[in-house]
Specification:
By secondary structure, the protein is an alpha/beta fold. The chain is built from three helices and six strands; from the N terminus they run H-E-H-E-H-E-E-E-E.
């Protein structure tokens, strides 16, 4: 949990108003919630990979590029960019069985 507070503080302290955070997918939604419930007037996009970068056919590079575009296009708020979709921090969940993030 202290790591999430460090991420929140780093976002708050940053002079940038558009931020992409590469994050592990198992707890990505937890960090998004901490950021989403904080008064940060920035566009923050969290992203990860369902298939690790080192593995053939990883979605890591696609997701990263997609998150960078989302950070430039979205209004201030906290988002998750995965699987070619942008989710609001409070309307996303990881579906482990299907291997995707989806709306909740």
């Amino acid at each position: 949990a202290s790591h999430r507070q460090q991420i929140k503080q780093a976002c708050s302290d940053s002079t940038e108003d558009r931020i992409v955070i590469v994050h592990g997918t198992d707890t990505l939604s937890d960090t998004a919630e901490v950021l989403g419930t904080s008064p940060l007037d920035k566009t923050i996009v969290l992203v990860g990979a369902m298939i690790p970068y080192e593995v053939t056919n990883s979605d890591a590079l696609f997701n990263l590029g997609f998150a960078m575009a989302a950070a430039q296009l979205c209004t201030p708020g906290v988002y998750v960019a995965m699987n070619g979709q942008i989710f609001s921090w409070d309307k996303v969940k990881k579906n482990r069985e299907a291997g995707v993030f989806e709306r909740r």
